[in-house]
Amino acid sequence: MPAPDVVHTVPTSGELTIDAPRAAVWRAAIELDELADDGGYALVGQPRSGLGAKSVRLGPPVGPHGFRTVMYSEVTALQEPHWITSEVLTSTWEHVETLLLLDIDPGRTRARVTGAWRRPAPAGTDFSELQQSLDLLAAQYLERIAAAVRGS
To answer: How far apart (Å, rounded) are the C-alpha atoms in residues 4 and 139?
Structure first.
């Protein structure tokens, strides 16, 4: 009899210094998320932007099994010197990410994505390639934010 699945947690991260004030970086990140929203649903009674902003959206069917992803986004903190948002994606797995924006110098912002991907799988499953891919996606997300700030 095969061993039961265990929940594996794969940490993810990315970091980039962006030559722009934190407010401009934040605005670019919000605009990117809104463009990607494609008809997401605002939660009734919750603001669409700023502290406490929450939204839910359903992704298209993907992969050979047609799994759809549900993404929940919430702005969890707006405090000096950083702003924090969290996103939770879930289907047959869960991926939680946090975007942290830190003032490091006048006109410069350190953007950091940290998160964890969780999924049941047999004990001993190697997720090193997945971790590299998720870290690359985090880096690409930060590069898209930087490009949006530059207007390119």
So the answer is: 34
